[in-house]
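User: Structure please.
Assistant: Input sequence and predicted structure:
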Amino acid sequence: MLAKFIAYLITHSNAILTDAAESIVNVLASSFAFYSIYLTTLPKDENHPYGHGKVEFFSAFFEGTLIAIAGVMIIFKSGYDLIYPKAITQLFEGATIIGVTGLVNLWVGYHLINTGKKYRSITLEADGKHLLTDAVTSAGLVVGVVLIKLTGIFWLDSVISILLGLYILYNGYKLTRKSVGGLMDESNVGLVKDIIAILQENRQEPWIDVHNLRAQQYGADLHIDCHITLPYYFDLSRVHKEISAIDHLINGNAHHKTELFVHADPCLPACCNYCRVDDCPVRQEPFRAEIEWTVENATKNQKHFDQ
């Protein structure tokens, strides 16, 4: 941030000021992200039985909002300077400083994204994507500043700044949209598909069907609840055994630490045609075909024969 403001002071370039202003957002957002990461490490307590992971969505929302505000301010400031231009100096020196800061942000951004994916942290990923956005704007800025120097068309400075402001505003919107989805418990289709695929590939005979499957992510932890249809004559010990097997299966194969809530439903005569239990003592219809579990049928709140 300091390097970019030095570049602005020696050039008086509005486009470089744009990049420097976004760096203020970087510092504020990263400070809040740092505190959010600390909160997510706190254990569950009486007031937060699901842990503190959702603060990451708030952190991403805060960062996205700051990015969007910076984009709007940049657009207005650049529009003003387009009407009332001012002298620009030492563009090559300023471009060199911006280029170096862009390379640093590029490396740190990729590192944060990879670390965020490794530890399933939306905060680290959001901060990393923000820095990648900064690196892209810096690259565009360097090209623009060199173009201004070579052509002598100084009003391009404000035009480039406005274009970068629009790009920053769009990235702020995307980040805010994703965080709002997390705060509103928007369904994560990718996670649900992974869980259903694991159950389908490892399904056992007593697991007649799975439905009303939902997944929520709280920081690095995944919470899943679903209904499993089991033979109605299973005693409580057998039901517990089957549910425990599902729990171990998900936690052994999923990429998230998962807390599972399973509601056991008793089977009905209408289930017989797709039930694979060979030695069922109460079967009323012969087995015809297995119903493959998909996002479409496993997420609905009804047994499969009702569809």
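The chain has two domains: 2-183, 189-306.
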